[in-house]
């Protein structure tokens, strides 16, 4: 069983209408993990222990995890989290999981929808610090106000010539791309990418569809790393 820690909420911030960011600090501890890996939070509710996986968006090496969590009206953990205040306590585990960067010299594509963006942001930060290739970051959401980390991503793309960012909206007509984000791969990559690795995270139908689309384009399975998120998937 993974070891657990007592964490304290040190900051809570509304990122989008449905997503809050939480900073959770564990005193006298230094987290060590591969960006993209997740922790499991747990708490007691109605006499039962509720456990859910969440992926920090910050890098390893400090006493704090930054989580971004979307609230579902009937969701046990996301609602409980949304009702917390600074100073409250929470139990969480050391980080684990198979989603992490495989090759820092390889051109890299990150493709996600919704809260599937969290491991992508963590891996992107690591790649921009340590990687040497071209990077594309494709993100799909419903409307502009739902786009998570837009400021962060826009700043990163302004700071890094090797990064291109594309947002696609499924429920709003705007000046940018629309529809399923995976349909914009050619437009985002152009001919600048040499046999890239693809990291894909979002709801299972998007992940399955993207894998099929990549395989149709001749991308070998061993260049695709995915995680499909749904309730109780871990
Ligand atoms: C490895 C991993 C990492 C994750 N990291 C994050 C993260 O960083 N941020 C984050 O917000 N979530 C993340 N998730 C999803 C998270 O673990 C929960 O599944 C989510 O917060 C819902 O939990 P809940 O207890 O609120 O809802 P539950 O009580 O489990 O479910 C209630 C209802 O909410 C709806 N629902 C639940 N999850 C989804 C979903 N993904 N899409 C659409 N509807 C849903 C369904 O209608 C469901 O019936 C991750 C999942 C995995 C597997």
What ligands does this structure carry?
A: flavin-adenine dinucleotide
Instruction: Predict the CATH topology of the largest domain.
Output: Rossmann fold
Q: How many DSSP E strands?
A: 11
CATH superfamily of the largest domain: Nucleotide-binding domain of ferredoxin-NADP reductase (FNR) module
- Can you tell me the overall shape? globular
Span of the ends, CA to CA: 14 Å
Mean pLDDT: 95
Describe the overall structure:
This protein folds into two domains: 90 residues, Beta Barrel (Elongation Factor Tu (Ef-tu), domain 3); 121 residues, 3-Layer(aba) Sandwich (Rossmann fold). It is globular, with a radius of gyration of 18 Å. The relative contact order is 0.15. The model has no long low-confidence stretch (mean pLDDT 95). It has 234 residues and is α/β, with parallel strands linked by helices. Helices cover 21% and strands 33% of the residues. The chain has a six-stranded antiparallel sheet, with helices on one face. It has a five-stranded parallel sheet with strand order 9-8-7-10-11, sandwiched between helices. The chain has five helices and eleven strands, in the order βββββαββαβαβαβαβ. The longest helix has 14 residues. The structure holds flavin-adenine dinucleotide. Flavin-adenine dinucleotide binds next to β4, β5 and α1.
Q: What are the salient characteristics of this protein?
A:
234 residues; alpha/beta; Elongation Factor Tu (Ef-tu), domain 3; Rossmann fold; five-stranded parallel sheet; 11 strands; 33% strand; binds flavin-adenine dinucleotide
